[in-house]
């Protein structure tokens, strides 16, 4: 048996950060348009979209909008095959769920390797989902409940999905928060480091209980940035996008990420409601369709803030590593400080009973 090793991070995360830690040379829209025409037989006008780690374009061809994604070279074939197979599974299992459809290349391949200065990069073409990004809109109570319902339906549709790469360890899976301990040393501002350390210690003390929770393959990033809505329609949710963090993790972790993204971000959103009201509406929508056991319910509030800690640690570290993309990387980080202050003011034992 190999000797035990310290999993705490020192210089950089030992957990697989994949493309989060890898730079790549941007592909210009004109070159991407040529590749789309040559490989997919689709000719059109491309517009670059802001993303965390890859080159993504909106492509308009004969009035039809598509998404053309060229992966970071650090994204492996297994990782992208997991994403593609997830979408194919959902198309077969729950065709009414609003997720992107994968469009094969001329030769039938879903993923095509493209040469590049940083190494091969895998490209794929997908359908475009219409709607406004939920993150740009104020919250609506009925919609929060509906999002919980859709999160539950997605969970149930993926319950029998299997993939050999789904057991990978990714930094955005908060089961692995203890492995990010060394990133606390990279938080320069002591006013930020202190609450992060306090919350980190409180949550990681629950690691054994978190690791014992029921698991399956899940979206793992059911956030307002990855949901599209059309509020002129009765069923306002029109799109679930970005399956880049799909992984086998605790069901409660996936739900907690969705709940986090319904927390108030500022005084305007808070209004007269308490911090956890919107998250509770989403939770109620979820359990109306998919149950949770008492152990999951007790940990859910803490898992919500485990994601806040994870987000702060990763984004502050990555903003230093990639200063040219700092604005995009930190776009959701600042709202977390008030959320974290609220968490640290709660009695942990009482908070654990909040959703029972």
> What is the tally of helical segments?
12
CATH architecture of the largest domain: Alpha-Beta Complex
Identify the overall geometry: globular
- Identify the CATH homologous superfamily of the largest domain: Aminoglycoside phosphotransferase (APH), C-terminal lobe
The radius of gyration over CA amounts to 20 Å
Report the count of strand segments: 11
Q: Average pLDDT value?
A: 89
Give the class-level CATH name of the largest domain: Alpha Beta
Share in β-strands: 5-15%
Beginning-to-end CA distance, first to last residue: 42 Å
Largest sheet: 6 strands, antiparallel
Q: Helicity level, as a percent range?
A: 25-40%
Structural class: alpha+beta
Number of domains: 2
Topology as a string of helices (H) and strands (E): HEEEHEEEEHHHEEEEHHHHHHH
**CATH fold descriptor of the largest domain:** Aminoglycoside 3'-phosphotransferase, Chain: A, domain 2
Low-confidence stretches: 1-13
Domain Aminoglycoside phosphotransferase: 54-269
InterPro entries: Aminoglycoside_PTrfase (IPR002575), Kinase-like_dom_sf (IPR011009), Pseudomonas-type_ThrB (IPR050249)
Protein name: Hydroxylysine kinase
Function: Catalyzes the GTP-dependent phosphorylation of 5-hydroxy-L-lysine.
């Amino acid at each position: 048996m190999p000797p035990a090793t310290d999993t705490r991070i020192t210089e950089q995360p030992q957990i697989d950060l994949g493309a989060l830690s890898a730079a790549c040379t941007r592909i210009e829209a004109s070159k991407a348009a040529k590749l789309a025409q040559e490989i997919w037989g689709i000719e059109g006008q491309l517009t670059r979209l802001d993303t965390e780690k890859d080159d993504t374009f909106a492509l308009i061809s004969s009035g039809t909008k598509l998404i053309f994604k060229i992966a970071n070279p650090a994204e492996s074939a297994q990782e992208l095959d997991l994403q593609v197979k997830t979408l194919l599974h959902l198309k077969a299992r729950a065709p009414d769920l609003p997720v992107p459809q994968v469009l094969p290349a001329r030769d039938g391949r879903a993923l095509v390797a493209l040469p590049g200065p940083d190494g091969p990069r895998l490209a794929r073409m997908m359908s475009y989902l219409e709607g406004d990004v939920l993150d740009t809109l104020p919250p609506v109570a009925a919609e929060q409940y509906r999002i919980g319902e859709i999160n539950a339906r997605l969970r149930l549709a993926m319950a029998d999905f299997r993939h050999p790469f789904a057991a990978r360890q990714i930094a955005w899976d908060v089961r692995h928060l203890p492995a990010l301990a060394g990133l606390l040393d990279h938080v320069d501002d002591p006013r930020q480091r202190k609450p992060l350390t306090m919350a980190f210690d409180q949550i990681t003390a629950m690691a054994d209980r978190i690791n014992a929770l029921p698991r399956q393959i899940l979206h793992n990033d059911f956030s307002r940035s990855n949901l599209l809505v059309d509020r002129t329609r009765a069923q306002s949710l029109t799109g679930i996008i970005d399956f880049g963090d799909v992984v086998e993790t605790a069901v409660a972790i996936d739900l907690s990420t969705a709940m986090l993204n319904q927390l108030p971000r500022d005084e305007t959103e808070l209004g007269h409601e308490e911090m956890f009201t919107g998250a509770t509406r989403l939770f109620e929508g979820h359990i109306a369709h998919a149950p949770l056991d008492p152990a999951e319910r007790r940990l859910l509030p803490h898992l919500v803030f485990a994601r806040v800690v994870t987000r702060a640690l990763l984004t502050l570290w990555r903003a230093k590593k990639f200063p040219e993309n700092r604005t995009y990387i930190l776009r959701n980080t600042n709202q977390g400080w008030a959320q974290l202050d609220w968490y640290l003011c709660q009695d942990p034992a009482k908070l654990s009973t909040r959703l029972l």
